[in-house]
């Protein structure tokens, strides 16, 4: 009798608490006088750098800090015309720069973000949550193994349904998913904030930005061809 051929899928999901938070900020001013605009941004940037300089990646004793690193972008400027009335248009000048701060301690993120947002001309743009490369590798490997076991279990169920219970179920081909990080597809994606009783570190003030830690999920799907003897 010819061997039974089964093609089925395996799926798995693994989640892990976020380990890094990248806070993005913008220093920006717009006005009619280019010298004033440039000065405002320069002064605000200096204040921001003074605050961040106290948060060096390592303390004086060599102990790890609450931030991994911070970087300032290159200032950019542009001008544009704005219509003030039917008979008047004015030339406006804009100057901006960006800043990124990578946190390893989320309490520090919740404490520092309101302080920085209170500075004139400083805006919080968002937070990007992530895992370390080592954790991503471990999570993805565990998920792939679970997906393989899921596919094997499905194949064994089908084999039993066709009267092949106890037969040897051997995988002969595996086709992995795309690895895309888009929601609903395979790969890493950020989930909702913690809802399992862990502390959430929300910012104070009307920032319109959630600083609550999240979970990050890795989802994998694969197609496996089996032969049952």
TrEMBL record:
InterPro entries: SIMPL/DUF541 (IPR007497). Gene3D superfamilies: Protein of unknown function (DUF541), domain 1. It comes from the Eukaryota. This is DUF541 domain-containing protein.
């Amino acid at each position: 009798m010819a061997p039974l051929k089964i093609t089925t899928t395996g799926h798995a999901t693994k989640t892990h608490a976020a380990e890094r938070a990248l806070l993005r900020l913008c220093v920006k001013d717009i006005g009619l006088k280019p010298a004033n605009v440039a000065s405002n941004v320069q002064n605000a940037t200096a204040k921001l750098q003074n605050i961040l300089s106290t948060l060096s990646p390592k303390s004086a004793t060599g102990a790890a800090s609450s931030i991994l690193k911070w970087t300032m972008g290159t200032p950019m400027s542009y001008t544009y015309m704005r219509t003030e009335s039917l008979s008047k248009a004015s030339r406006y000048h804009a100057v901006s720069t960006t800043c990124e701060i990578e946190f390893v301690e989320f309490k520090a993120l919740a404490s520092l973000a309101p302080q920085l947002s209170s500075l004139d001309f400083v805006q919080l743009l968002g937070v990007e949550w992530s895992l370390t490369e080592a954790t991503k590798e471990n999570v993805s490997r565990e998920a792939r193994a679970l997906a393989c076991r899921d596919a094997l279990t499905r194949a064994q169920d089908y084999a039993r349904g066709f009267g092949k219970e106890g037969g040897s179920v051997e995988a002969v081909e595996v086709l992995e998913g795309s690895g895309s990080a888009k929601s609903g597809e395979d790969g890493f994606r950020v989930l909702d904030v913690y809802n399992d009783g862990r502390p959430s570190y929300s910012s104070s003030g009307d920032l319109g930005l959630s600083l609550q830690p999240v979970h990050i999920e890795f989802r994998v799907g694969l197609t496996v061809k089996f032969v049952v003897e």
